Amino acid sequence: MEKKNKILIVDDEIDFAQAVRETLEERGCEVVMAHNRDEAEAMAKDRPLDLVILGTIMPRGDAFLFHKWLKHTSRFSDVPILVINACRGEEILKGWRRDEGMQCEAEDFLAKPIEPLALVPRVEKLMDKATHRIKVLVADDHAMVRDGIRAVIDLQKDMQVVGEAVNGREALDKTIELSPDVVVMDIVMPIMNGLDATRQIHKECPLAKVLMLTQYDDEENVLASKQAGALGFVPKAAASSLLLNGIRSVSQGKQLTLSRN
Predict the structure, then answer these.
(1) Would you state the CATH architecture of domain 134-251?
(2) Residues 54 and 63: beta-carbon distance below 8 Å
(3) Does this model's pTM top 0.85?
(4) Could you state, in order of their start, the residue ranges of all structural domains in the chain?
(5) Homologous superfamily of the 6-128 domain (CATH)
(6) How far apart are CA 53 and CA 7, in angstroms?
(7) 43 near 65, Cβ under 8 Å?
(8) Spatial distance between the Cα atoms of 143 and 49, rounded to a whole number of angstroms
(9) Tens of pLDDT along the chain (261 residues)?
(10) Largest CA distance in the chain
(11) C-alpha atoms less than 13 angstroms from C-alpha of 257 in its C-beta half-sphere
(12) Can you tell me the distance from the alpha carbon of 191 to that of 156, in angstroms, rounded to the nearest whole number?
């Protein structure tokens, strides 16, 4: 099944936002709407995003603040933003201020009035340019293992290592801080083991998916990992291709099951 692009529209002009939504949904996109900054942040936290269309919201300045929040939050820093400023004559009431415009980090910027159909080529262009990269946190107490995993991931165009942890407690803390899509988690680590860390991550950061990594792939470890909330299990001795396929699979919420000979 073809992946649907996930788009968040943030605009308090409901008729305009709905018209844009319907236009993009007709082209196979999955679209949600928010009408103020609080709603926008809540929706962003609840789902992965491929694009944000940031229109006009009140009070003035909130659109700029939401844009800065996106760009300064690691999970959303690579998500492209299309800003639609207020039309001429309304800029002083709900448009971007001059100093805000100078600090704008959005990938595209235009102003109302604009027809929803005219947005389609801009949206498609941004989608073509933006390749969603799976953010990976590597948790293992052995530096050589972490370095090896990072070296393999660094060669991939669709994923990146956003952090490393040397024990389960640090893995939990960095998951909360960095919001990775996938945590590659060793089972045996000091301070807090991988199973306990996975349980806490599953409880506190449900959007982060855990792929368990261990030296022993016996049934007991596989079952314990699944019960802790991990979606997959990869032996350290497995080929790098299996690790990469596992990361891609669990990032989509799929359970990774290893066949046994």
Answers:
(1) 3-Layer(aba) Sandwich (3.40)
(2) yes
(3) no
(4) 6-128, 134-251
(5) Response regulator (3.40.50.2300)
(6) 7
(7) no
(8) 33
(9) 356 789 999 999 999 999 999 999 999 999 999 999 999 999 998 888 889 999 999 999 999 999 999 999 877 887 899 999 999 889 888 999 999 999 999 999 999 999 999 999 999 888 876 666 789 999 999 999 999 999 999 888 788 899 999 999 999 999 999 989 999 999 999 999 999 999 999 999 988 999 998 776 677 878 888 899 999 888 887 768 889 999 999 998 888 766 544
(10) 71
(11) 2
(12) 32
Identify residue 15 by its one-letter amino acid code. Answer: D
Residue listed under structure tokens 């052995």: 142
- Token readout for 7 is 């788009």
- Alpha helix stretches (DSSP H) within the chain: 14-25, 37-46, 62-71, 91-94, 98-102, 116-129, 143-153, 168-178, 194-204, 219-228, 240-251
Residue 157 neighbours by CB distance under 10 Å = 7
> Tokens 């016996």 belong to which residue?
218
